[in-house]
Amino acid sequence: MKHFTDSTRKYTDTPCPFCALLCDDLVITNKAGTLVAGKNACPKARREFNRSSHTCKPTMNGKDVPLEKAINAAAALLKTARQPMFAGLGTDVNGMRATLALADRTGGTLDHMHGKAAAGNIKVLQDRGWISTTLMEVKNRADLVILAGTDTAHFPRFFERVLLNRRALVGDAVKHREVIYIGDADTIKPVSRGTPKIRRITCKTQHIGTLVSALRALLNGTRLQARRIAGMPREDLHALCDKMRSARYGVIIWSSADLDPKHSDLTIQSICALINDLNQTTRFAGLPLGGHEGGMTAASVSAWQSGYPLKVSYGRGYPEYDPLRFSAERLLATGEADALVWISSIGSAISPPATASQIPTIALTSAETPTRSSYTVQIPVGTPGVDHSGQMIRCDSVVSLALRQLRETDLPSVASVLASIQNALEARRS
Amino acid sequence: MFIKLTGGRLIDPACGLNDQKRDIHICDGRIVATPPMGVRPDAEYDIHDRIVMAGAIDPHTHIGGGKVTIARMLLPEDHDQHTVARTRLTRSGCGHAAPSTLTTGYRYAEMGYTTCFEPAMLPINARQSHMEMADTPIVDKGAYALLGNDDYLLRMMAARKDQQAINDYVAWTINASQALAIKVVNPGGINAFKFNQRQLDLDENNRHYGVTPRAILQTLATAVYELGVPHPLHVHGCNLGVPGNVETTLATIACLNGLPAHLTHIQFHSYGTEGDRRFSSGAEAIAEAVNANRNVSIDVGQIMFGQTVTESGDSMRQYAGHRHAHPKKWVVMDIECDAGCGVVPFRYSDQSFVNALQWAIGLELFLLVDDPWRVFLTTDHPNGAPFTSYPHLIRLLMDKSFRNDMLATIHPDAKKLSALAGIDREYSLYEIAVMTRAAPAKSLGLRDRGHLGAGAAADITVYREHANKERMFAKPEYVFKDGTLVARKGKIVKTTQGTTHTLRPDYDAGVEKSLKRYFDTYHTMKLGNFKIADDEIINDGRGSLTIQACKTRRTA
Description:
The structure holds 2 protein chains of 2 kinds. By secondary structure, chain A is of the alpha/beta class. Chain A is built from 13 helices and 22 strands. Chain A has a 7-stranded mixed beta sheet with strand order 17-16-7-6-18-19-20. In chain A, α2 (67-80) crosses α13 (414-429), α3 crosses α11 and α8 (208-219) crosses α9. The radius of gyration of chain A is 23 Å and the shape is globular. In chain B, 33% of the residues lie in helices and 22% in strands. In chain B, α9 (245-255) packs parallel to α10 (283-292) and α10 runs parallel beside α12. β8 (131-132) of chain A pairs parallel with β18 of chain B.
């Protein structure tokens, strides 16, 4: 562990683990163990980094216990569990590695706290694939950006970091850049400031798919009979279609969590099909936004180790995938899971679904999380990028960052706690 | 720890041994010339009559990085037909064409492979590539950093920066991404695709930067040579898969002007346009050029019939190939002003004229190139076929009657157009040892791998000789990794963690000044955070780094 003095320390170009954008230009000050996020921190980062240094102990049903006792109790619980659920999964790469190892050993099932939103994208990926892009490509190449049903509010610095740049590798792209919102007037709150070229198309969230399909029909030369489609006059639709066709590098951005949850996958499918059609003559790409709380990290590590992007079960001794059967929501609601390992080491205010209160729970939670007497075992753990170093994967999936330790702490990492539990479990075998 | 392997028949081309009986002594993971005095071996293996080779090296296999994991995510149907249960020793996993990292490591080791190289590591994706390789057990690994489609290099070339400045950038990239070599994929073409160019010939300009593939190839080959990177520029040329690309490939060889280069998966770049279907073998012309140009080495990228998935940085050509996707789904991605990727599942059929001819072209190339030191055995895993088909491929090369039996079953028109039936050559065990061990180790600058001489890492594969070479190579009797017995008769008996091979070419630290400006202005990451620290790979002892030597040939 690094040594930190009582004096003030300042960290520049610091990566932030608190959203999947993984901004890495923050200035963080450590004042005798208390962190203050300064320059380049969004309100969320300010809030989350501002953690005081306090010690908190592992608990069992709300009562303080030594770490070793908590670990042994967790191992005993997992030894008898027939169908343990590993959920939450708010952790870094090493944390996920340890989670997968333990799930493999105990026949567990894995799903992320934002697994439902991710599933909309994964379903489309596995059904048809897509043409996609990354943040830096959008920043430097996109001359037309369409936000389908999202105002990117969950990604507080998205506009600042990706769309409002004055300079770009392809100079024309920013000079002519146009940003168009398509979505519900009530929920879409344009967050941008300072660019005059933002247009807005009001359309109910559940009609975005219809609008996109109509655009696709137009693009392919179909004549539309209806005067208005999803509330939009046909002429405007023609104009939008022409605009898309004449873009040099167009991007459609969506956030599965912001789409109509009942059929987000169908909307995403229409978007991806439209993008494919546009690529017959010009360049267009999609950018799915999501993956907060280590969601992209968890799905990626799970995919390379188990073959599947979560919703995977080791119950039969090998990885099995079923996005419906193996969702945490379902397994907890039906009571099929008989133990829960809840991992939430990043954000400070996230709890397991209420249905989990029926079964014994081992909770690995960030130090700011209140103690709960309903948890059989609760072990406060360090936050990657705050209490220990680590690695995380960004929302656009191929870019990852190394996170730093910013303060001295006794908090163990998720990886080390899970490794200890696994060791205790192996010791119990004999 | 002292281990003795007694009585084996060594085939070790790097040390000039061809079926010579020798004992091997292993001390603490290394081969030693003489056994330690007065010490009894901790373990002795009687391997009389067994064939002994160094652990095999795969110089081109897509095992780690963004596109590999996209392929894994894309294809649950690839996995649920090929599940691997957990054992007391090994983790569970799955996969045929896009296996999980754990399964990949075990299967390579079971086949006697002890070192694997990911050939297409995007620098921006390098951190994830290393994470995935770290989760690939037993085998050593390393990666080639992709350059030549990054806007940074193309801007430098457009601004006519001198070779020295480019050398510094190339060396910086190798250091920052913890790479072992440099690869270029469809030089400038991935970048051009982002400007909506759909093809890019050797002398065609990138619309935006006005730079040609020829210039990129020459610039990067020169940089790699002058920096003394042991492995020559690893080239995935222009026009992959395009009928008639044999001309492009010959022009590519000529444009190198004698500079060393490795032309990878050359099978996909050896197509003519003869015959009724305007698709024919260019293998003869390519082999002739390779034989005549000693600065060039190749690997084949042999295809095998069956289901696989193609994973490539070449988004331009993968986009063009999406029409052949099977099953009908595919991903193309533009990545971070660095490069791109395309993932297209593919089913090669022996009753498809084109696929059958591709199969024959690959074998023609193997058999027509004279010098096994300059042709490496690959299927471009998984693009031509999964790496698990290597034993079958070895049998095709070593057994003419088996090869002709197979040839008789493919599409009859492809058979007619191929010269394969008239080629009598059969590879010897010695030549197989060259192309799967000695030659790749030499090419990559791995001085203590790929041979059985004193000082080598004790990566050793022991085979029981068999008339059926597929059986012989599928399940070696013993596989040792750094002196530890890891596999026995095709089953893992112990899991270990291999090292990561990297390189540290020198560069002028001043290069970071303009890089920092570029990162601050255009990037979505800070320069300092882009670089991969040693600790990230060492990861508290889970991994390790082995730094290979460079021999600078700087002209200035």
